[in-house]
Fold each of these.
Amino acid sequence: MSVLIECHGLTKVYGNSKALDNVSFEVQSGQPIALVGPNGAGKSTLFSILAGYTPATSGEAKILGHNVGSPELIGRISALPQDALFDPNLTISQQLSFLARLQGFSRRESIIEASRVLELMLLSNVTKDKIGALSHGMKKRVAIAQALMGQPELVLLDEPTAGLDPANARNIRQQVMALAGETTFLISSHNLEELERLCGEVLYLEQGELKAQQLIGQQATQHSNHNTPTQAKEGTHPPAISYLSLRLTTKNSVLDAKLKALKGVSAVDCQQGDEFVIAYDYQQNPILDQHLLLLLAESQISYRQITHGQSLEDQLFRK
Ligand code: ADP
């Protein structure tokens, strides 16, 4: 693993409003990284700055040790913009080969590279079609295929599965997982379950400020907007408190007290009577999950799901 992105005091001002406000963080290459935040939080602005499309008003952003937008990054990073546009007059294969030529591929290599990435996105059957003939999901896959050309080290995916049907969304998730060894993805999405499955770490933006950076499934670490990259990195340390999340098939009003009595448990948060987040000291009881299963069996309570850690939604939004 090596430092992939470093941002320090990154600020972007549009007119009177700050789209990004003194954002500092550092992330390593490796597992996909989630970028989460409400609409208007500054996610696309951060993507645009990292991709070199727009300059920051102040602050610094480096990728792989180079300032964003510098020529050293050509071919090493790529981006899927939210609304990628393609030439309606060219076939899919022609457009991607053309873009590969711009990246420095020879004529022959560009054709091979275009068909490689189209195959990755399961689009080999539409290479001779024009963009207008494709469905929304297919267009999105073409745009992702384009972002994968040249095997970049960092791919920025801005809402890659937004508006896609479940099968297309699943295909994109599978491709991201398959490529995660060679490429690090920074992915923005409102689908927290999707990010939870794909990503190892999350950056949470709100009103232009970085509010949290944390490992997924771990305890939340809040950020002030005057953090330094080092402080941000400290937020990724393993937590002292561990969590188990439990979902029952039906509501239960007495389980709460029984859970609190289990060894090592420090707090139990119950929502709607059938969802519990159990905070506990792993050192005190490393086999709490087994104790929990025994308790459920003895009490004849059936469950839908037990997971280690908190869901991303709970991590970010449970008070
Ligand atoms: P997100 O992607 O999280 O929805 P954006 O980065 O698109 O957020 O926007 C952050 C803020 O910056 C919003 O208030 C938005 O209106 C503003 N903004 C984004 N792009 C521009 C622009 N080109 N001109 C003016 N304001 C912009």
Amino acid sequence: MAHRWTNTLTHADITPEAAFLNRRQVMAGLAGIGLAGMATPGAAQEALEPNTWEEITSYNNFYEFGTRKDDPAKYAGALTTEPWSIKIDGLVDRPGDYDFKDIMSEMTVEERIYRFRCVEAWSMVIPWNGFELADLLNMAGVQEGAKYVAFQTALRPDEMPGVQFPVLDWPYREGLRLDEAMHPLTIMATGIYDRPIPNQNGAPLRLVVPWKYGFKSIKSIVRVTLTDQEPATSWNMSIPSEYGFYSNVNPKVNHPRWSQASERRVGGGLFAKRVPTLMFNGYEEEVAGLYEGMDLAKYY
Ligand code: MTE
């Protein structure tokens, strides 16, 4: 299995305001001479101040609770998250229904401060707490022949007012190639700012894949299936011309209806400016190798 990834972003790295503004001026200067899109190490380090708890928990996408950004904070409280059981099945040695509490007692939970980029061109920096998905998959024992991992969100019409509308083909479904799933950057998040993850952010556990657009990071997971076939995913089933299986953050491949070259940091306030989006959301060094030889315009 891949080496464990060491988190290089900690609270100690939070850029002091003055230095942060300084870097922005440098970036603005680069823009002036036409170098702005370049993923320089300076750009990768830029503006990694985590968003506030308030921002992270009040501006959400969780369509099971409605399609407005403030719907999840309003309605997701109705979701019963205790007890919570996750079915792990398909090509695994130890299939079964695993209790969330039992899983947690087996896992090493750490903090990971990740950039989070939504396909709608907004982004946040979020201090997640979670464990590596690889640890969960290894617990279940991945069998030879497994090539993909499929995920499903709970489907509870009584608790989820949004699922009465056919916005998506419920339950919400996502998938990863096995090597993406096993990558040490891929985590199951269970907390934010050292507090249990709030319902609107996907309690009690949700996926976080920091180099992919936010919709891959499926919330409130009840089923994980190892398979040899590329799994169907909700957004691809709904609009295949706009949302592919890979969904890697890529400033060079635009969404058919808008550019993906830049993003707006949520909570930037009065001086909020769009910043250039980085290849693989700034994690190019860690993950580019997974896609060697693939045409990323074709496999979007
Ligand atoms: N998971 C489920 N089950 N339902 C959803 O509607 N929205 C996705 C993803 N996971 C979604 C989901 C999208 S589009 C984004 S951008 C992120 O969740 C948002 O995560 P956040 O609310 O924690 O920022």
